[in-house]
């Protein structure tokens, strides 16, 4: 009788902890989804200027976030029912999510290390083949307040020499690009590298933080399943 009461108390405690964990995990899934959408619609404009950028990382982040929200939503029912098989399955899904999170984090770290050289080459290529109809570089120059790769003189060193784009202007309503005091002085390579390095640290931090959570959930889920099985065995005996 003593062991049975002890098991019931432990099961109640584990259920409560797992339920609280699941709420946090569900909210984390929503947070990752927001980060993924931000990477897709904001960071993407700058990251695709590097030829090394494949464009798949934001899609993977969004996919993992969607999976987390879906699984954690279903898991509420599993926790309430307290079926060991369902809890073990949930634990297995959490381990899979941990591996996916770890993979996303590793790919972001790897991309960050090779990004700088790829970005410089990509920006230089973009300037030499500049097309006003493809707005990404113009968007980067106007949004980040920069001009050229190293500075505005990159446009004049091209062969044939090009006119500095209006996106380099400090004030587009009152700007003569031939007057170099009217254009941004900093180069886009320096500004974009600084911007992406700071924001990639956020992505890496989110990936590392969310990679630890599934392991905690898997431990709680499997422990709860084991104690439920043990409680049933003690009742039979």
TrEMBL record:
InterPro entries: Tetraspanin/Peripherin, Tetraspanin_animals, Tetraspanin_EC2_sf
Iron recorded as keyword: no
Disulfide bond positions: 146-188, 147-168
Keywords recorded for this protein, A-Z: Disulfide bond, Membrane, Transmembrane, Transmembrane helix
Gene Ontology CC, one term: plasma membrane
Transmembrane spans: 12-39, 59-80, 87-109, 202-222
Entry membrane topology: Multi-pass membrane protein
Signal peptide residue numbers: none
Cellular location(s): Membrane
Family of the protein in this entry: Belongs to the tetraspanin (TM4SF) family.
Full protein name: Tetraspanin
Annotated source species: Euphydryas editha (Edith's checkerspot)
Lineage, highest ranks first: Eukaryota, Metazoa, Ecdysozoa, Arthropoda, Hexapoda
